[in-house]
Predict the structure.
Amino acid sequence: MRNRSVADLMTPTAVTVQPGTSFKEIARLLDEYGITAVPVVDEANRPVGVVSEADLLRRHTTKGGPSTAEAMMSSPVVVARPSWTAVEAARLMERHRVKRLPVVDAGGQLIGVLSRSDLLQLFLRRDRAIQEEILEEVVTRILGVSPAALHIDVDEGRVTLSGTLERRNLAPVFVRLCESVDGVVEVVDRLTYEDEDEHEGTDANEDANDDAERPRA
């Protein structure tokens, strides 16, 4: 089972500016490309900051001082690595309250930009594709369970698991694996278990034995 990485989701050709790029040029680029922020890179194409629409508006209202990317940018810049999972990137965005992450290679050079809208592409995945991955990868390959014993229903990313598992202790693993599949929004567990029936039968036998051994009045 392979989750899509930052490299799979990012926009590889990022619009960038230099530290000396002017206010008006940055505003023009944001409008032309329909983006809300732009990375600021040095001569070696390493990101040193980010200028957003909010930064431009802040500079416009405060007046005074140089109106260059270097003067307006947010720094130090928060970056992502191409090998990260979408979950790792989303957590970093949430922690730092940013909407876009420059993506850098091992040498720190910019290779793309990941936005919140890129991450949302995961949840536009077709229900049929999610169902097939759960059956083929999770059920058959990882758990080694016959798909015939289970029913996987997917509706708008909401996965409902029903059918019978051999052991109850498989259920938490099964649910966690399903939750990790790209595009899954929620997992509902309606599974039953073979070992539960055996346990109930054992309890009934023990109760019968206790009754047989109990002295009669």
